[in-house]
Amino acid sequence: xxxxxxxxxxxLPAFWLLLLLPVLVLLYLLKLRREERxxxxxxxxxxxxxxxxxxxxxxxxxxNLLLLLQLLFLSILIFSIARPYLPxxxxxxxxxxxxxxTSASMGAIDVKPNRLEAAKQAAVQIIEMLPxxxxxxxxxxxEKSRSxxxxxxxxxxxxxxxxxxxxxxxxxNLGIALQIAKAIxxxxxxxxxxxxxxxxxxxxxxxxxxxxxxxxxIGKKNENQAIxxxxxxxxPSNRSLSAFAQVANYSASPVKxxxxxxxxxxxxxxxxxxxAANGEQxxxxxxxxxxxxxxxxxxxxxxxxxxxxxxDDIAYAISQHIKPAKVVLISDGNLFLETALKLLPFLELEVxxxxxxxxxxxxxxxxxxxxxGSAELPTGNLLFIAPLSSTQLFTVTGTLQLPDPLAxxxxxxxxxxxSLEEINILDAVxxxxxxxxxxxxxxxxxxxxxxxxxxxxxxxxxxLAFDLHHSDFPLKVGFPLLVSNLINWLTPGSQTPQxxxxxxxxxxxxxxxxxxxxxxxxxxxxxxxxxxLDYQGGKVVFTDTSQLGVYTVKNSKGxxxxxxVNLFSPQESQIEPQxxxxxxxxxxxxxxxxxxxxxxxxxxxxxxxxxxxxxxEWLVYQRAVVAMLVLRLRLFPKKFGPNN
Amino acid sequence: MLSERLxxxxxxxxxxxxxxxxxxxxxxxxxxxxxxxxxxxxxxFSDFRPYALGDDFRRIDxxxxxxxxxxxxxxxxxxxxxxxxxxxDSTRSMDWGEPNKLHYSIQTAxxxxxxxxxxxxxxxxxxxxxxxxxxxTHFPPVRGKQSAVKLFSFLQSISPCLDPIETATWLGSxxxxVANPGIVVLISDLMSDGWxxxLNLLRGRGHDISVIHxxxxxxxxxxxxxxYRLIDSEYRSEIxxxxxxxxxxxxxxxxxxxxxxxxxxxxxRNISYLPVESSLPLEELLFAWLxxxxxxx
Lengths: 644, 297
Fold this sequence. Notes:
The complex is a heterodimer.
Chain A: E1 8-9, H1 20-31, E2 35-39, H2 43-55, H3 59-63, H4 65-81, E3 84-87, E4 95-101, H5 115-129, E5 135-141, E6 145-152, H6 155-163, H7 174-185, E7 191-197, E8 212-217, E9 225-235, E10 240-249, E11 255-263, E12 266-275, E13 280-289, E14 294-299, E15 314-318, E16 325-330, H8 335-343, E17 347-352, E18 364-368, E19 381-385, E20 395-401, E21 405-407, E22 427-432, E23 437-443, E24 449-456, E25 459-464, H9 478-490, E26 499-500, E27 506-509, E28 520-524, E29 530-534, E30 539-542, E31 549-554, E32 560-565, H10 570-573, E33 589-591, H11 594-597, E34 599-601, H12 603-621, H13 623-632
Parallel strand pairs in A: 4-5, 4-7, 7-8, 8-33, 16-17, 16-18, 18-19, 19-25, 26-32
Antiparallel strand pairs in A: 1-3, 3-34, 5-6, 9-10, 10-13, 11-12, 11-14, 14-15, 20-22, 21-23, 23-24, 24-25, 27-30, 28-29, 28-31, 31-32
Chain B: H1 2-6, H2 9-15, E1 31-50, H3 62-68, E2 72-80, E3 83-88, H4 101-118, E4 122-127, E5 138-142, H5 148-156, H6 167-177, E6 183-188, H7 195-204, E7 208-215, H8 217-220, E8 226-232, E9 238-243, H9 245-268, E10 272-277, H10 282-293
Parallel strand pairs in B: 3-4, 3-6, 6-7, 7-10
Antiparallel strand pairs in B: 1-2, 4-5, 8-9
């Protein structure tokens, strides 16, 4: 990028007005018919002019002083109409906040070596243009925003900080970065916030920032294809897996690409795709052996199609249900519930009579209309349905007649898509809400809970207050959904999300019934590095999911699990650089290259100069008046009269 | 009476109190009232000398003969008249200004001439001549107060020359025609070359010369502003000037320098030099400036 600061003009066509200059000269020549004046004798004048011309060779020029002044005035006026500007480098504030987009789309290689490097170079150039004592802050905007250096006047430190910025693989949330910048800007005078990004970012809708916001668009091209989705579905009937992938083309022209599927590293299928411009194509790969653990979909490199972003060409999916959860149903017989449970995949269901012993390894024990006989509750998670009496976990105080169910929170995930209207319930037990629980469904009349869920002593417990046989709920569409949701929540072993977006924080619960000593969770990242994390309050929060690929989780019991981090982000795959960013409340100035940016318009100065010249011209024109004023203040020596 | 147009009676009576000063002894053929360096007939005794053959014996001092028995001739200071030569520049450049320079010089010449006539001096007037003739530009020498009417009518008949004149030729030919030195008063604006040559020629004849350098007010201080093509009224030559403050300042400086040059020129040659603006009242010129300059008393 060329950073020489040459002055320019915003209104170049104004220079056609220069054609007025010859016109002015012509008018002047036409006008310059000197007034003829008869005088007694030119004797003295001639002598004087000879004298003067001998002394001042530019005397002739002086005669045209008025013309020269008028030409000068007109030229300066035209100059100012042409709106000259000085590229003051634009970066002349005392405090600069650089926001560098480090999101996945900045890895596009349409500018060499890639957009992030280009942005870093631009940032270094901008910093060089700043005043020597200017203080610089640098904020990275990826899936997480971070201030890498704050208000530093030490250029070396700033350069090092910029040098160490690396590409993240997630979305770009400019809003957070701008909030950090705003926090700096609000405390400093004369702040410029310079956003270096391709503009494909999550923007706040409205924001106010004190200071100038400038946007430098990085990137040139938009050619990119991306795997937008990769899903692994189990086919319970023949115990095989199906992989569903969706490939999008973000180019403005159709492309041909090959999508290959790898099962645990072995190529097993490939599809040749023809994707229309800005189009999508779905692919279904069936017949994957159920023991497969990792499916990898890869858009193969192809010379015929430009694809500037490689991060979104690979996607991983993990076969999640390797170990079915063990569920024990203790019931006198409940066809509705058994049927609903059997519909759930990868569930090992055991139906027991109330008097039969419960397997301690059971992940979930369902007490349908019964309560545990002994004071010792099983160690797994618990679901109580219409408990007859109080237990150590809750207290039953009576019965409710004809309760009217109502969802406490309309957007409760566990009640998603479940309609509670027109559900008739004969009666329900009246339970006092335990402190550990949260009410999901209540009786509209008595506000008593009908469905409770919560965690107590490291296990998950749910209580359904009415007997399914005393209700028509099992006949409604919502019933299997509610059962599915409840069981999913109560069997957290299968809760690891299939697709994790980069930067997402994951929570791992400590497995139940593990010894106090084994308190470490091991997570192996795609690049082979391992993080060892200690459980805090029975949980581990893992946030370092910025790498794309397959993560292996080994919990304290030695059980391994996997999850995949994929860039399924149309925002990032759409790599077309944006010309501007729009945020209500601030108006970022877009700079397509660095030198054009800081134009300081000079027309006011030029117009002022023209006015000044005009005044001078008028004074010269009225010089007789001026001369008279001067004369009044002067005494002339006596020239006439006898010499004595 | 024509003279009334030029001057009032009262003014003329006041003029009669003035007299010309002749800074050297007069010498002419005519007897007048002006003391001569020659011996002549007057009432003022000068010297005795022995009688020589052929002397007029009426002038023998018989009283001396009675005492000394020798014949002596009584000598008296001759009292002669002198001639006032009024040279009036009547070129076109003189016919200019407010008040008009030519009219002003005619008035001055009339007043000086009247004073000379009253003083029993001879006077003659010459105006700058063109090639066409001599007669109507020359007023031949006259004497006596009675000639004043003729003088005034001649002066009033002066009209500006139609053609430019050769100043040096005019003054040179005039100098060659005049036999005896007299008083020369030149009234002119001196706005052409050749005046120095002419004055040198006149000076060579032993005249007592005074120069009245007459300028119009707008020549001394031009009131113009802007771009002009100035046209010479006499020579029709043109000059383009841009009259701004500086130019006018330069003009004034130049004018002063020019006058100073003339003052020097005249001082060296014992010529009386008097710069006058035509706006100066005539009375002030005659009763104050000229006496102070030693031309009148």
